[in-house]
Amino acid sequence: MFNKALVTIFITLLAAVSIPAFAQDQKVAVVDVQRAILGSSFGQEQLAALDSDPEYAELLASLSSLQAEIQELDKDAQTNAAGWTEARYATYQRQRQFKVADLELAQQKVQAEQERVVNDINVAMTEQAQSALQELIEDEGVTLLLRASAVYTFTPEHDLTGKLAAKLSQ
Known about the structure:
6 helices
């Protein structure tokens, strides 16, 4: 029993001494490659182009209009539903269901368009991002690189995302 306690204490002390020594020789960093790509000047230009696309703007306007129409229907129902007949209430429910279905479709279209543009940006920048990341790893002396999404927490000085975005914007 006493020997087990001594062994446990010895191992704990050994780990406490050797882990910091090991960590001193390592440079650990994290990166979010997609965020860097989208944050690059090319990525920002493509996202801005989407925002200025008339068809996309029309989709967004349609989305806002449908949301306002649903709110107006609900407001009317809250105010007047007490005096409605069953037929009038059924009409309200049907109109609202149609508007909600239209809204969901419009949201899907907006999301699909955003995903298309993000995918196009990623395809166009993947090789350049890989090359820039390799250069950054060498320049920074990184020995262990992790995806930012795989790390629970990290400090800003370990995050290479901004540096990668800047390198891609050169």
